[in-house]
Amino acid sequence: xxxxxxxxxxxxxxxxxxxxxxxxxxxxxxxxxxxxxxxxxxxxxxxxxxxxxxxxxxxxxxxxxxxxxxxxxxxxxxxxxxxxxxxxxxxxxxxxxxxxxxxxxxxxxxxxxxxxxxxxxxxxxxxxxx
Length: 130
Prior knowledge:
The protein is mainly beta. It is built from one helix and eleven strands. The strands form two sheets. Strands 2, 4, 5, 6, 9, 10 and 11 form a seven-stranded mixed β-sheet that branches.
């Protein structure tokens, strides 16, 4: 079992940057592919599910991004620190959401499917002002 704790969220102006971190404890971190998802407030009110943002394989050899963040966000990980990161640049108001990290056990590929992930953090709020 893995416990995930996100940090690094906050309020930033449009065009600014933030780096999210997700620290893991419990099971062997390198046994998991990791992903970032988000849920915007209006989508939560509408009963929508979390949307995929980015994912990375256990060794960082493969990554995947949602089209909406390609070229602006970068996912990375440091297995020596049991941490996955999401560097977010050129932020837009539509990036405003709660961001969640998630762990997918024992795979060598990345997936954007929310249901494939086994463990989730509690989320960190990112607010981008216009």
